[in-house]
Amino acid sequence: MRFSVAMPENLLMQFDQLVAKRGLAKNRSEVIRDLVREALVEEECTVLGREVMGTLTIVYNHHTTDLQNKLHDIQHRYLGSIISSMHVHLDADNCLEVIVLRGESGDVRDIANILLGVRGVKNGKLVTTTTGGNL
Fold first, then answer.
1. Percent of the chain beyond pLDDT 70?
2. What is the pTM of this model?
3. What is the distance between the alpha carbons of residues 34 and 108, in angstroms, rounded to a whole number?
4. Would you list the DSSP string of 89-121?
5. Kind and range of the H or E run holding 61
6. DSSP SS3 for 4
7. Which residues sit opposite 94 in a β-bridge?
8. C-alpha separations of 69 from 39, 62, 63, 115, 132 in Å
9. Res 133: pLDDT
10. Rounded to an integer, what distance in angstroms lies between the CA atom of residue 124 and that of residue 131?
């Protein structure tokens, strides 16, 4: 199905730069389809009860008293939802951890918030996705 989109010239120029960054196999139409799919998946992930996958990336100071034990305890408590984790040493003080979660959207967000709330976690972000159904 075809449709037209009107936009200011400066926005179109910026969009064309995005299209160019996405590679030779992409054109305006394909990038618009990608953006629409991305928005629909993001919306689907907010539906309570929806099965989602998530990656929680956290950065923390590993010198914080008992922090690693608390993080491990939480991950063991939610063993059914936490699929995997990867630990990376950033420097002498800081570590990055990527935790892969799977489950009902509200549960995944709750677990992520518990982990983000542990004293010593400096920052983090949860990114969720689904298979996108028929997108």
1. 97
2. 0.82
3. 25
4. E-SSSEEEEEEEEEEEHHHHHHHHHHHHTSTTE
5. strand 51-61
6. coil
7. 61
8. 37, 10, 12, 12, 36
9. 64
10. 23
**Residue labelled with tokens 């935790």:** 99
Q: Is the pLDDT of residue 130 over 80?
A: yes
Is residue 133 within 8 Å of 44, Cβ to Cβ? Answer: yes
What are the tokens at 104? Answer: 């009902």
Q: In 3D, which of 125, 126, 122, 127 has the Cα closest to residue 59?
A: 122
**What does the block give as tokens for 59?**
């950065």
Report how far residue 42's alpha carbon sits from residue 49's, in angstroms, rounded to the nearest whole number.
14
Q: Tens digit of pLDDT for each residue in 26-81? A: 899 999 999 999 999 999 998 888 999 999 999 999 999 999 999 999 999 999 99
User: Which phi and psi (to 5°) does residue 100 adopt?
Assistant: -100, 125
Q: Please give the C-alpha separations between residue 111 and each of 8, 43, 103, 123, in angstroms, as whole numbers.
A: 42, 19, 10, 15
Amino acid at site 28: R
- β-pairing verdict for 82-89 and 51-61: unpaired
